[in-house]
Structures are given as C-alpha cells and as structure tokens.
Amino acid sequence: MNSGQLKRAKKQVRRAVLARRDVLTPRERDRLGALVTERVLALPEVDSVHAVMAFWAFGSELPTMPLIEGLVARGVRVALPRIVDGDLEPRTWRPGEPTTTTSFGALEPSGGEVLGRDEIDVVVTPAVAFDREGRRVGYGGGFYDRFFLRTRPDAFRLGAAFGVQLVDGALPAGHFDLRVHAVVTESETVRCPRDP
User: Fold this and answer.
1) Average pLDDT for residues 11-16, to the nearest whole number?
2) Is pLDDT above 60 for 196?
3) CB burial class (10 A; 0-12, 13-18, 19+) of residue 6?
4) Are 152 and 117 spatial neighbours (Cβ–Cβ below 8 Å)?
5) Residue 104: is its pLDDT beyond 70?
6) CA-CA distances (angstroms) from residue 107 to 97, 135, 166?
7) Predicted TM-score (pTM) above 0.90
C-alpha cells in the first residue's frame, strides 16, 4: 500500500469509527469510561508505577479525568501531553492546576515539570480506532508514534477506548506506526503482540 492509499484507508477508518463513537451520549460515555478506568487501575502494569502519561479527553473521547484522579490518589505522578515544536512533551499535572486550550480543543498543562524519557512507566494512548494486534489509527499527526520512540523500551503502551473503537481485522498501518501493548475497553482487556 503506497502512502496515498494508506492515508485514504485511515481516513475511511476514522470516518466510520468516529460515527460510532459520536452517537454515544455523554451519560453513556461517562458510564463506560468508569468501567474502563476500573479495568485500567486493576492492571498489574499499572499497580506499582511511579509515573503515567495520560491524555486529556476532548470531543466524544473516553473521559479520562476519573483515571487521572485515580492515579493521583495512588500517589502516581501523572503527566499530560503538551505540544511543543510539533512533538508531545509530558508535563506533570494534578486536578485543579491551570491548563490552556489547544487549537483543536484539548487542554494541556500550563505549567508542570517535564518528565524525562526514563521516568514514564505507562503511556495511556488515545486513538480513533484500535485493532486486536495493537495497531491504532489516530487523528493523523503521528504525535504518539514519535513519542513512543522517545520513551523507555519497557514503557507500557496502553490503549484506552470504548468498545466501539476496537475493530476486528487489521487496521491500515505503515512501517512508522507503532503498536500499543494492550487495549482496554469497558468489557475487555486485549493483550497485543510486541513490536519486533
């Protein structure tokens, strides 16, 4: 598949999966999000971590504030991404600390400490769609693929999403698309093969 075909295939996936996700009501998103949070906090990979990079949900994404609050209550240092020069910069954040709004509507920390690549144990990863092999289709910026390359090799990449975002069959992917190690939805935890 050439790059043009790959872009078109990903665009089709985005359109189809976003249509399914967007019909979830805010109440249903909150209910399902609480179940995802419970499953994530029960994972052994999350049980005794020191630092987690989470994400700030926007639009119809999985609400992440309950997960952030749950991690902070355990004494985990939580970082949220801030876009700096086209890349993600993990900055510590706690509920109530100041944020700024990005051009696409998400919030990012106004301050906070930048966490180094060796400090992050888990990267909670957003996407429009995941498959059962850990492939993901994001919003098209490649931010997380570049970020994964800058984290420790043993950092756990965790996809967190609604069940409607988990597709059967392989998602379109290029050689630069890096996989997550597990995907957690409201009803299951899918363990994925590691990248070679």
Assistant:
1) 92
2) no
3) middle
4) yes
5) yes
6) 11, 25, 25
7) yes
Question: Cα–Cα distance between 13 and 19 in angstroms, integer?
Answer: 10
* C-alpha dist (Å) from residue 15 to 1, 11, 51, 188: 20, 6, 33, 24
What secondary structure letter does DSSP report for 114? B
Residue entry with tokens 């419970």:
38
Residue 137 placed within a domain: yes
Domain total in the chain: 1
Find how far residue 105's CA is from the centre of its chain. Answer: 16
Mean pLDDT of 112-136: 95
Residue 121 in domain: yes
Q: What CATH number does the domain containing 97 carry? A: 3.40.50.10420
Please check whether residue 55 is in contact with residue 125, taking contact to mean a CB–CB distance below 8 angstroms.
yes
* Predicted local distance difference test score (pLDDT) of residue 139: 86
What's the distance, CA 187 to chain centroid? 17
DSSP structure class, residue 170: P
Give the model's pLDDT for residue 92: 97
Mean pLDDT value across residues 48-62: 94
Contacts of 70 (CB under 8 A, 6+ apart): 37, 41
CA distances from 174 to 161, 170, 178 (A): 22, 12, 9
Q: What is the pLDDT of residue 195?
A: 62
